[in-house]
Design a protein that fits this description.
The protein has 321 residues and is mostly helical. It contains eleven helices and two strands; from the N terminus they run βααβααααααααα. The protein is globular, with a radius of gyration of 22 Å. The N terminus is likely disordered.
């Protein structure tokens, strides 16, 4: 039987069998990918260029946009290329790289969402200490810890997964390489070591989830004690985008990995993977900008400046000619 040393490539799950549907899926995912690039790119540019947004909340939002761009760029371009060229192949090294970056970026994003919950807790429950608890150095350290924790977990899981002997062929039942699908190809009982590491990771994920929930319990208690209706509305508006993003991230991942085996199927697994790997990076910019007037003003100012510069450049070109 083949093992990991004899596997030079993996075969990913195709979105469709007919050429017409393949091209339809390519166009759909190309549109989603371009929307994610545009939305997250605008947030990156607005936060970086507008000095009014140089605050801890927007610093963490900038990091989230970078992670979202990385997440969707790790999986979707390869899937679109395979769909366009009517192939399923990904190299062994490419598969390992996908596992590494997906786990790294998703883990770092979840850690960052936990840090952002702490930011909202301090802003509402301890506003007088906000500057001292979330100074520039503290923010940089927390962001670095989020990125670092994701990288360490990714290296650990990738090394464990790809050190296992593979005895079940090379067909991956997913449109990108992910650890549960690779483990299905491993030899009997050889996956127990990686399963043990997964248990540790699940425990850490649960701990972060409890921290987020407890943070928002304290936030809600503080908001409900506010005498001003306007103050309560402003506080809820500050927290709502983050709560929606956390709920979207957690619910899609839970649906993908905690659904009952009896209802599992390749098509359902494919849909679940799209929900947690493609949808959040594409809609997160919309969620954060929808109720955030500061961000909307910065984006409008940025787009106005771009159109103005383009008009000036066109006018100068016409004068030269």
């Amino acid at each position: 039987m083949p093992n990991s040393s004899s596997v030079s490539e993996f075969l990913l799950l195709a979105f469709a069998d007919t050429r017409e549907l393949q091209l339809l899926h390519f166009g759909l995912f190309l549109g989603i990918y371009l929307a994610a690039l545009l939305g997250n790119g605008l947030i990156l540019t607005a936060v970086a260029c507008d000095h009014r947004l140089h605050t801890p909340m927007y610093f963490f939002l900038l990091n989230l946009a970078i992670l979202d761009l990385g997440c969707i760029s790790t999986t979707l371009p390869k899937a679109m290329a395979n769909t366009l060229w009517d192939t399923r192949a990904i190299s062994y090294e490419g598969c390992a790289a996908q596992v590494l970056f997906v786990f790294f970026l998703a883990g770092a994003e979840y850690s960052l969402l936990t840090v952002m919950a702490y930011d909202r807790y301090v802003a509402i429950c301890k506003p007088l200490h906000y500057g001292s608890l979330l100074g520039s150095r503290a923010c940089a350290q927390m962001a670095a810890a989020a990125w670092g924790s994701g990288f360490v977990h990714a290296v650990l899981h990738t090394a464990n997964t790809f050190s296992l002997p593979l005895c079940q062929g090379n067909a991956v039942d997913q449109f990108f390489c992910e650890i549960p699908q690779i483990l299905k190809l491993s030899c009997s009982n050889s996956y127990l070591r990686e399963a043990g590491v997964l248990v540790v990771s699940v425990s850490l994920v649960f701990g972060c989830f409890v921290f987020i929930v407890l943070s928002y319990v304290q936030v809600f208690r503080a908001v409900l004690r506010m005498p001003s209706v306007q103050g309560r509305h402003k506080a809820f508006s500050m927290c709502l985008p983050h709560m929606v993003v956390v709920s979207l991230f957690v619910s899609t991942v839970m649906f993908a990995y905690l659904k009952r085996p009896s209802i599992s199927s390749p098509s359902l697994d494919l849909m679940a993977a799209v929900l947690y790997s493609v949808v959040p990076p594409a809609v997160n910019p919309l969620i954060y900008s929808m109720r955030n007037q500061e961000l909307k003003d910065a984006l409008w100012k940025l787009m106005t400046r771009c159109f103005s510069d383009a008009a000036n450049f066109q006018s100068a070109s016409a004068d030269d000619s």
